[in-house]
Amino acid sequence: MRFSGQVPAHDLTYSDVFLIPSRSAVTSRLAVDLAPTDGTGATIPIVAANMNSVTGPRLAASLARRGGLGVLPQDLPLQELDAAIRWVKQQPVAWDAPIELSADASVADALRVLPASAGGLIVLRDADGAEAGAVSASRLATALPDARLGDLVHGTVASLDADDLTGARAAFDLLVDAGIDAALVRHHGHLVGAVTRRGALRSTIYAPAVDAGGRLRVAAAVGINGDVAAKARALAEAGVDVLVVDTAHGHQEGMLAAIRAVAGLGLGLPIVAGNVVTADGVRDLVEAGASILKVGVGPGAMCTTRMMTAVGRPQFSAVLETAGAARELGAHVWADGGVRYPRDVALALAAGAASVMIGSWFAGTIESPGLLERDADGRLYKESWGMASTKAVQERFGRLDPYELARKELFAEGISSSRIYLDANRPSLEDLLDMITSGVRSSFTYSGAASLPEFQERAVVGFQSAAGYEEGKALPVSW
Ligand SMILES: NC(=O)C1=CN([C@@H]2O[C@H](COP(=O)(O)OP(=O)(O)OC[C@H]3O[C@@H](n4cnc5c(N)ncnc54)[C@H](OP(=O)(O)O)[C@@H]3O)[C@@H](O)[C@H]2O)C=CC1
Ligand SMILES: Nc1nc2c(ncn2[C@@H]2O[C@H](COP(=O)(O)O)[C@@H](O)[C@H]2O)c(=O)[nH]1
Ligand SMILES: [K+]
């Protein structure tokens, strides 16, 4: 990457900068390879943040199926983390995992899990866990809220045999030939997944992030307190692919000790550590044993650190400096926080990030862990909160004695309640991934790059005023 024009003396964030197009020999955006080279096995440079409102097993599996990586948060009890990792590892890779609900659940219950506009199929289970038919999500739009899902089943839903699905393109064509949008996929009669036209199309564009055994990849976080090594070992035994050692102030002795403890286990897994925003921070954490640095203090949507402490750093400069330092050491950085638009992802990658971590934006999707809420205008949202908020601190330290909990609560650096609205046109994580990756693919071709290393080499970055940034926005009404 190079700058065009006089580099300002102050630090920069994403809205301060833009990409200047260059001559390109890349003839199609679909010829772009987005894969990061950070050793995580991801095929797109997108990581879902270790936040309780963002990454659960379902979101992690959906993201890995499209090549990204979800980081399960350190706040989940070890037993739940173990179960979540094992669940992700059992999920179909080539097909979607249909939403499964009890046949006794009501339409209103189902509408807390997915909107009728989501498309696809809902598989119903009876009290013994046996299949009790399937209904299309769109059926929820016309049924009464208190109707029992099991009573909406009429006839059997189309099923395709996995042996007939020789590839994603074949699956798409079979659905078109049958005149249907979605079907269950069976193998020797057993349900192994579901396929939609959109899902099959996506499978022709994305490559899943899979481990050596061909199972979906998943990451998990550990904090820096307690027996960090024992927890890391337990996660590795459950099958985790990447370990993230995470705390607000990553450049502290407690973090260095935690990294050494995890690295000392010799698990052979990439160790991500943070958060840092300086080259010195990178050097110390890499020396302790980290191979990827999580970068960002204060840019997060749920984060009040900058206003509480004045500490942090505008994110573009933080990524640029740390990525440069990491490169010299053969390490990598993940740009963590502050992403609101696909352009921010492109700029983080141009600054040198191997991958970009997204939290709050992904909280507002069907796949995130929370239930759907509806505001007074009928708009769908999910609740989100910061991992250093009073709410998160209470959940994390609730089992401590009241005095210890009260001491911890003094230091809240995040908001406890926020509404993240679902995009009516893009309610699922995969819809957002389509939007982000298509934007970034296009960014690469504007710079004449067909791969991430080429993009980082060729990107030309200019500086803009607030008016320049404003000009780039679309206008939903006339002026
Ligand atoms: N990227 C960002 O800007 C930020 C992210 N977060 C996220 O919130 C979650 C909770 O993290 P965290 O609050 O570190 O909790 P942790 O449970 O990881 O504990 C942090 C430990 O570090 C000690 N510590 C020393 N200085 C600091 C400091 N300035 N800030 C925080 N802890 C400090 C704490 O001791 P003691 O409590 O006694 O001080 C405690 O022992 C993490 O997921 C983290 O990534 C939180 C804030 C900023
Ligand atoms: N200072 C705080 N930072 C937080 C908190 N919870 C999460 N985070 C950080 O934000 C990113 C995600 O950023 P987003 O803009 O995509 O939401 C996450 O990975 C953490 O580093 C918090 O309570 N305080
Ligand atoms: K912020």
State the main characteristics:
TIM Barrel; CBS-domain; 2 domains; three-stranded mixed sheet; 17 helices; 20 strands; binds NADPH dihydro-nicotinamide-adenine-dinucleotide phosphate; binds potassium ion
Chart the SSEs and their pairings:
Layout: E1 2-3, E2 17-20, E3 46-48, H1 57-65, E4 69-72, H2 78-90, E5 99-102, H3 107-111, E6 121-125, E7 131-136, E8 159-161, H4 168-178, E9 182-187, E10 190-196, H5 197-205, E11 219-222, H6 228-238, E12 242-246, H7 253-263, E13 271-276, H8 279-288, E14 292-295, H9 305-309, H10 315-328, E15 332-336, H11 342-350, E16 355-358, H12 360-363, E17 373-374, E18 380-384, H13 390-397, H14 402-409, E19 418-421, H15 429-446, H16 452-458, E20 460-463, H17 466-471
Parallel strand pairs: 1-20, 3-4, 3-16, 4-11, 5-6, 8-9, 11-12, 12-13, 13-14, 14-15, 15-16
Antiparallel strand pairs: 2-20, 6-7, 9-10, 17-18, 18-19
The chain binds NADPH dihydro-nicotinamide-adenine-dinucleotide phosphate (NDP), the ligand Nc1nc2c(ncn2[C@@H]2O[C@H](COP(=O)(O)O)[C@@H](O)[C@H]2O)c(=O)[nH]1 and potassium ion.
